[in-house]
Amino acid sequence: MNDFLPILAIETSDSICSASLFFSEEKYFSAKITLKHSHSEKLFSIINSVVEQAEIQKHHIKSIAVSAGPGSFTGLRIGMAAAKGLSQSLNIPIYLVPTFEAIALQIASISPENSEFIIANKVGKDEVYFAKFQIKANNYIFKEELKIVPINQLKSLADNIMIYGNADFNSLVLYNNVSALSSPEPEFIAIWASKFGNSVDVNNIDYLEPNYLKEFVIKEKKL
């Protein structure tokens, strides 16, 4: 995997726009900004920032890891487009990183062995992206695979375990054991890629798409 280091990691699945230039778990440079609808405007500034922090040139980057969803339709498309453009200009491969698994890897780094947790991020008003995990050997396993569920089922699925995400927990009277963590730190995008990722060659990136998990429907505005 060292042939693909440093990795430039891009995370735009939620309201936080972030990037990391990752050399190892002991050496990486990350930056992020929390500003709604700013991804298209700020992403390349953030990327330039981490490259400058690392004191290298862009042509020294060996690969790109991008958060592939599920998450914000617009954010994911911006991140994917940036990753493809950089891949082509630098002639380097891309790693597609499942967003919920990168979050789970981050949670596993700070959680006790065998503990279980749920990630629940909003899809729309009435649905959430949902997955259940358990910590095993500083890593994670799926207890329930990623899926979309009605938000009114979330309370029964939570079952008094730790729950992470940006779903509307208040409306479900879920106050305890709740964390607002809904997207991974960008360095965990890179860590996931370095541990588990399969690279996509620059010649095969044209049809790469985020994992929306649900078809994007444009709603017509009534006049």
What does the model show?
By secondary structure, this protein is an alpha/beta fold. It has 2 domains: 2-98 and 184-204, 2-Layer Sandwich (Nucleotidyltransferase, domain 5); 100-179, Nucleotidyltransferase, domain 5, CATH 3.30.420.200. Helices cover 27% and strands 30% of the residues. The protein has helices at residues 39-54, 73-90, 99-108, 154-158, 186-196; strands at residues 7-11, 16-24, 27-34, 63-67, 94-97, 116-122, 127-136, 139-150, 162-164, 178-179, 199-200. A 6-stranded mixed β-sheet has the order 3-2-1-4-5-11, sandwiched between helices. A 5-stranded mixed β-sheet has the order 8-7-6-9-10, covered by helices on one side. Strand 2 and strand 3 form a beta hairpin. Helix 1 (39-54) crosses helix 2 and helix 3 (99-108) crosses helix 5. It is globular. It starts with 6 loop residues before the first strand and ends in a 23-residue tail after the last strand.
